[in-house]
Design a protein that fits this description.
Strand content: 15-25%
Order of helices and strands: EHEHEHHEHEH
Distance between the termini: 9 Å
Oligomer: single chain
Strand order of the largest sheet: 2-1-3-4-5
Helix content: 25-40%
Number of domains: 1
Largest sheet: 5 strands, parallel
CATH superfamily: Flavodoxin domain
CATH architecture: 3-Layer(aba) Sandwich
Number of helices: 6
CATH topology: Rossmann fold
Length: 185
Amino acid sequence: MAKKILILNGSPRANGNTAALIDAFTEGAQAAGHTITRFDLRSMKVNGCLGCCRGGKDPQNPCVQRDDMAKIYPVYQEADLVVFASPLYYWGFSGQLKCAIDRLFAVAELDPDCRNPIKSAALLMAAEDTYDNTFAPVLFYYQSVLRNLGWTDCGHVCAGGNLEAGAILQKPGQLAQARALGASL
C-alpha cells in the first residue's frame, strides 16, 4: 500500500552527504509507489520549543509560535512515515532537526491525553567518523524516541566516512542501502 512519507532534512548543507542519502531513499520509495514530501530545515525558520504547553488548541496551527512549522504540521499529521535525516553532530541530530522534532509535541497536544499520532519512522545519517560505536548514541536516542512515541522503526542507514560534501558519492554501497530502504517500505 502506498505511504505518505515526510522527510525532515536537518542538514545545513544543500548538496551534502545527507542530501545524497535522501535522494537515494526518495528514488527507492517513489519507485515503490510512495509519496514523498521533503522539508529542508536549513532554509526554514523553525524556532526552538518554548516549553509553554499552550499548543494543541487549533488543528490548523497546533503551536502558539508562528513560523515555518506551519508548513510541516499538516504534512506530519497526514504522514504514515517520518524520515529523520541529519548529519551526525556531536553524536546526535543536528540542531535544526532537533528543534523540529521538539516542536512536533504541539500536535500531541491536540489530543486530550497528549498522545502522539502513531507513525512509522526511518533514520538517514551521514558522519565523518567510522568508529564501531560512532552512531551508538544517536541510534539509542532514535530508538528511545520511537519507543516512547509508540512508533514502528522501518530501518536506518548510518553512513560513516563522509566528511566533505559529496564524499558519499564515492561510496555507492551506502547510497544503495538508502535506496533499498526506501524501496522496502
